[in-house]
Amino acid sequence: MTGTAQPTFDLISPSSGQVIAQIPDQTVQDAQDAVERSVKAFGSWRTTSVYERSVLLRKFNDLMLRDVGEIARLIASEMGKPVTEAAGEVKYAASFLEWYAEEAKRIYGTVVPSQSVTKQLMVTHEPVGPVYAVTPWNFPAAMATRKVGPALAAGCTIILKAAEQSPLTALKMAELWTEAGGPADTFIVLTTSDPVPTTKVMMDDARIRKITFTGSTEVGRLLAAQAAPTLKRVSLELGGHAPYLIFDDADLDQAVADVIACKFRNAGQTCVCVNRVYVQRGIADEFTRKLSEAAAQLKVGDPLDAATQIGPLVDAQGLAKVKRHVTDALSKGATATTGGEAGEGLYFQPTVLSGVRAEMLIMQEETFGPVAPIIVFDTEEEAVKAANDTEFGLAAYLWTNNLSRAFRVSAALEYGIIGLNDPVPSTAQAPFGGVKQSGYGREGGLWGIQEYLTTKYLSMNVK
Ligand code: SIN
């Protein structure tokens, strides 16, 4: 953060509609200043030992865990995720710091055999340079640490542009990095009500060597184009439109519980939330009834109440999209077997729609809301074809007890992540990312740190 007499913008809670904080509204000048500081800090941070970086990241992890309750309340207040779920997010966020504290020590090089007995060919990996990260509001903590953890572990400095809807969590995390002993300007948070001009500063500056973004496909394409003139490294984790294929050999009760977990976490505002539930005809009626009963039991309420399972949508635009999808489906013959209507303010009832068909809007776009549309299928081929019939390719799920089918269908699904009898595959040590219009690059695990490293080759002729 820079300056003291800055303009501010109002941060409005989606549950109460009240202004909960004044956030520094940083300008082009602040962005330029952040670049200067980040570039300068990179000069020394890149030369620190991986063990030093590891110790700092481990302390950062410990401080996140110390403050789980406080950070969870910030998340609940600023973007409406129920506080119990938000506490889970904070632990998930910290796990990226823990993982990359370890992974920093495994940035191995290679010695390659040469044709000459006097030559040694040595390959090492170096930090790519100062990084610009743009993160979404739906996981204010975890989408930040999934970028900040590997960047800092690799020896990069990072400027994080927090989402306008969820800056408090990002600011708190920058404080914790300082408390952990993180050197000044290695991790800078930028807050602004208008990200376009500040982002232009980052994208135009050739000293920023990488852009990493989680958000919509539309914005991802713009950033990829803006990164081209300075040839920045780019990783994009973009939209999804996840299918869930429930075969008639599934354990029905478990499949219902899994679809509830996958669909309704964060009120459906997750890139990997199921968006299309395909159910085989023989079990469709029973599945629909059980899913509707379970969805109707979900407790909708104040995100700061520990018992709440479904909070509000993040803003009026998000709510309008959910309403549009549901209205369109109902007008074209779908039935709401539970829910189907908006509540007060930014709330929408947990909803299950049956009788959904491919031509409905909800089957073409990511809803990002608490709505589960059910589509009935007959054959495995038909289900796979429908699941792949989208420009997106982030996550797909299936439920089956047939081992051959499990492998066959997993192989045929054109997605970066497959949850086989598993509704929540995301974890710090695994690769997260998509294919097609869901982006490129991977976050998490040993793949995540590669995105922040370049390869250097040293040819030594020693006689
Ligand atoms: C996302 O919505 O992009 C993140 C979800 C996850 O990490 O599971």
From TrEMBL:
InterPro entries: Ald_DH/histidinol_DH, Ald_DH_C, Ald_DH_CS_CYS, Ald_DH_N, Aldehyde_DH_dom, Aldehyde_DH_Superfamily. CDD domains: ALDH_F5_SSADH_GabD. Pfam families: Aldedh. Keywords: Oxidoreductase, Plasmid. Residues 6-457 form the Aldehyde dehydrogenase domain. It comes from the Bacteria. GO terms for molecular function: oxidoreductase activity, acting on the aldehyde or oxo group of donors, NAD or NADP as acceptor. The keyword Oxidoreductase applies. Coiled coil: none annotated. PANTHER family: SUCCINATE-SEMIALDEHYDE DEHYDROGENASE, MITOCHONDRIAL. Belongs to the aldehyde dehydrogenase family. This is NAD-dependent succinate-semialdehyde dehydrogenase.
